[in-house]
Amino acid sequence: MLPTKDVRSNDLDKSLNFDVTDQHNPLTRYSKISSTIVFIDSGVDDYQSLVDGTVPGTEVIVLESTQDGVEQITKALQGRTDISAIHIVSHGSPGCLYLGNSQLSLDTLNHYLPQLKTWSTTDSATSILLYGCNVATGDAGTEFLERLHQITGTEIAASANRTGNAALGGDWNLECCTGQIAVDSAFFPELMQVYQGVFAVSFSNANNFTVGNSPSAIATGDFDGDGDLDLVTANSDSDNVSVLLNNGGGSYTLSGNFGVGNLPVDIAVGDFNKDGNLDLVTADFGTPFVSSTDNTVSVLLGNGNGTFGSATQVNEGDIPLSVAVADFNGDTDLDIAVGRFSSPGIVSVFFGNGAGSFPVTNDLTSGVSGFSTSVGDFNNDGNLDIVTGSGSNEVSLLLGNGTTTFQPSISIPTGVSFAAPDAVGDFDNDGNLDLVIGSGSGAENDIAVLLGNGNGTFGSPIPFTTGGGSEVAVGDFNSDGNLDIAAASDDQVSLLLGNGAGGFTPSGQFDVGSNPSSITVGDFNGDGKPDIATANSGSNNVSVLLNTSSSSMFALGSTTQVGDFRNDTDYLVADVNGDGESDLVELWNNNNKFFAATWISNGSGGFNLGSNTEVGDFRNDTDYLVADVNGDGESDLVELWNNNNKFFAATWVSNGSGGFNLGSNTEVGDFRNDTDYLVTDVNGDGDSDLIELWNNNNNFFAATWISNGNGGFNLGSNTEVGDFRNDTDYLVTDVNGDGDSDLIELWNNNNNF
Questions:
Q1: Do 260 and 344 form a contact (C-beta atoms < 8 A)?
Q2: Average pLDDT of every residue of the chain
């Protein structure tokens, strides 16, 4: 039994801790646990490791992300009289749990009153333990716990800070309780020590920056060339765009307001004249049904310093509602797609000439009004396609031909009123682009995800309730490698965390300005995490939410013994069997002989011993490189050593099963203390070659040794590649995309690289 601290009902600031007292007999310790059920929301990071980390005797139920989590828990507890402890693991925020596709919060407690009253499953006291981050924080958290306690008749324990990995700011203590609770931990202490996630995504309070009147759209770009993401809004009531320049830390200064056409409602960014400076384009709604000359598309060419030239009106016609930028005909010049409010529905594509003008236009019949326009390759043919929204529950897909023409439109049902295809991404990690559909009316709180099949068709719409959100953007907010959704509406942004299979779990709401009309995502403070910005038409400002989540890009895969400890052992990473998974090569000295043991990846983070091969005599100056000297896709070894002031390279060719056979032994240059060797394919034939680098009279020289495909090398060329400097380094890459490896020389010059 794991001892816990008792917490009294009048003492909400005390802590419920799971303290480990016996590290040596875990099975005995956990064998007493019974009548315990753990609900784990599938939206939390690496939920399977939590399932695997529960102690014996614990019943585990995983909540499906596409179903109501409260209903799932209620159904599982129905008719049960044997449960004394209910553990609920999910994302959380103050006074709120995110369960499946639903929220249990102060706002929904009354809605779920009949279900919650059934959660006390025994005549004796049942305890409910809530692991969601920050659930018990603040007044909202305290009130939520007390009301849940009153409704269920159970004692409640919950976390007032982050729950999970300590390195990410979390712990496994439940700091607040409504009464006396003494329960066993449902998880092994080893799991709590190595679990890599926390049960929350957090953002800073919104920083607000004033822009023009009624900003209706927002976009990002580096408009002054300083490397930081700036923001721009289209302001429908002041007929201009506002440019906000980033100071590098996510704070912004207004560069200026620049005039466009009448009532701009959307904006996009691109370099239309190829001068290296970003330009702008707006869709100007104008005065509807009065004059077509009032309905324009405005282009502003950037000066590269955060300012823009006067607007040029590209086209007059039916009312422009949305705009997107892409190269549709493959000529490397950016084009513009404009969705129009018209019948039967028109998308106008303006084809750029690379000089800032658009001499060719193609009006495409979409069949729907263009409330929103997005671009992607939805049938994997290498050509960009257009998807545009409508005033109904359908969107229209126009498949591109890679020219100035498109195929006839395809109507796709979405299940969302005033469907607006606001964002594109691969939400199920199958390599095909998917769609997330918001509500262009701004009146609904539901969105839908359409998973692409890779051939221009989509699966049935999957609806999600955001709790408020019709304008959407995507990003990986919790750094788990899966795309998430941010939805803006009702003065807040709602997050839905993706599970990588097309499912999403609500995970918090964050306040922004009044009536957010558009949302965008970018790294605004340079910390490598995606942040959020909204254009707020009701408060005439932009809200910036900086991502403060502590995150880990890696979860523990496996721990494997891969050899005995020796002071001279070294490890290399290679793919010795050509299966596309990285293996380990263990190198060590045994009786003055080098041996290589291969540890073959099992594909799940573990390794199995492949083979053990003698790969040369022991020498203090011997080095080993990984290469594919014969181009068969299997990693070989190149043994380099000094013999009578000459460098020799012996190749050990992989046999595909983890062993190596001696290929050839070649002299590859004179011995010098400052000589270095790089592995690359200098002639693009698929065989790894060597580049020998050394200093000669304060000049660097590079000699290439070309693989003969059988493990030997022949001298290719000898080239001076820069001046000698102590801090110079060389990298190998293909800088011009011709399939041949090039060199990049890096050095310090007056504290600049």
A1: no
A2: 84
Q: Phi and psi at residue 436, in whole multiples of 5°? A: -115, 130
**Can you state the percent helix, strand and coil of the chain, rounding each to 5?**
5, 45, 50
- Give whole-number Cα distances, 267 to 123, 242, 278, 584, in Å: 62, 11, 13, 50
The answer to whether the beta carbons of residues 423 and 473 sit under 8 Å apart is yes
Q: Is the pLDDT of residue 275 over 70?
A: yes
Whole-prediction pTM value? 0.62
Fold of 26-194: Rossmann fold (3.40.50)
The answer to whether the CB of 377 falls within 8 A of the CB of 399 is no
* 462 vs 619 pLDDT, higher one: 462
Residue 560 banded pLDDT, cuts 50, 70, 90:
low
Given a cut of 80, whether residue 142 has pLDDT beyond it is yes
Distance set, CA 400 to CA 62, 348, 349, 363, 406 (Å): 42, 13, 11, 13, 4
Which CATH topology does 570-746 take? Methylamine Dehydrogenase; Chain H (2.130.10)
Domain range annotation of the chain: 26-194, 414-511, 570-746
Q: What is the dihedral of CA 492, 493, 496, 502, to 10 degrees?
A: 120
Same CATH topology for 26-194 and 570-746: the answer is no
CB atoms within 10 A of CB 57: 14
pLDDT over threshold 50, residue 734: yes
- Is residue 184 within 8 Å of 1, Cβ to Cβ? yes
The Cα–Cα gap between 389 and 368 comes to: 7
List, as one string, the DSSP characters of 479-533.
Answer: SSSS-EEEEEETTEEEEEEE-SSS-EEEEEEEE-SSSEEEEEEE-SSSSSS-EEE
Q: Which two tokens stand for residue 32?
A: 């007493």
SS3 72: helix
How far, in Å, CA of 317 to CA of 575, rounded?
59
Closest CA to 200 of 144, 161, 143, 158: 161
Look at residue 727 and tell me whether its pLDDT is greater than 50.
yes
Rounded CA gap, 46 and 198, in Å?
A: 10
Q: Residue 330 corresponds to which tokens in the numbers above?
A: 């493959």
H runs (alpha helix) in 538-665: none
Q: What is the pLDDT of residue 200?
A: 62
pLDDT on residue 343: 72
The mean per-residue pLDDT over the stretch 514-522 comes to 94
| Ordered strands of the 91-93 beta sheet | 91-93, 96-99, 102-105
Instruction: Tell me the two tokens of residue 575.
Output: 């793919």
CA 259 vs CA 46, 180, 275: distances in Å: 49, 65, 22
Under 8 Å between Cβ of 597 and 590: no
Q: Which of 14-18, 84-88, 398-402, 615-619 has the lowest mean pLDDT?
A: 14-18
User: pLDDT, tens digit, for every residue of 49-85?
Assistant: 888 888 888 899 999 887 899 999 999 998 888 788 8
State how far the Cα of 480 lies from the Cα of 485, in Å rounded to an integer: 13
List the CATH code of the domain at 414-511: 2.40.128
Q: How far apart are CA 630 and CA 627, in angstroms?
A: 9
Is the Cα dihedral 574, 579, 580, 581 positive or negative? negative
